Amino acid sequence: MDIVMNRFLQTLIVAAPMVIAAPYVVAETHPAQKQMQQNIDAVLKIARNTSLTEAQRVKQIEQYANRYLDYERISALAVGAPWREFSAKQKTDFIRVFKDMVIAMYSHSALIGAADANVRLLPKMTANGNKFDVFSEIQTKKGTKYEVAYQLYQSGGAYKIYNIRVDGTSLVTVYRNQFSELIKSKGIDDTIATVAAKGLKKQ
Predict the structure, then answer these.
(1) Within-domain flag for 182
(2) What are the Cα distances from residue 66, in Å, to 21, 83, 153, 183?
(3) CATH number, domain containing residue 89
(4) Domain count, the chain
(5) Which of 27, 175, 190, 203 could form a disulfide with 125 if both were Cys (CB 3.0 to 4.6 A apart)?
(6) Mean pLDDT (whole number) for 112-138
(7) Is 100 within the bounds of a domain?
């Protein structure tokens, strides 16, 4: 599923337990949507800045995304139940290497896709307490369209992304089976080493 993961990373660049379904509501002025629109505009501006090298664009986008992506929660959800067995250091190490692996494996194709994509925020969202699903539609240069749901929670005056669904496929579940198998067969430290070596097969 290389296409799926490229879409996820494209979506992360456009940005940077599942929410219980709630009725769609018109929310064009909701703060969560306002932030996502600002994120999309800011990141696409970087992605389309041809005066920067690819490495510079990826770096700037990564720095911007760091403010809005909750890598700890994303990692915990991707690992699942075994996350409770990780020590504090193992959690820190895993978060770092997982982020590095994903960026290294998919950033090139994702960046190209984001630069050429037409992105629009959809006038709907779901809400469950302080958690929100904000929706967008991405149309590729070839005309392919897919819907992206950004799952966020409110933290102070900002909204942090903790999961992304692309046409219903969840980022945090894409890797979960692999991590579960690795932890069972190799243990936590060797799993971290495998991720650090970018040894997971592309999904």
Answers:
(1) yes
(2) 27, 22, 15, 27
(3) 3.10.450.710
(4) 1
(5) 27
(6) 88
(7) yes
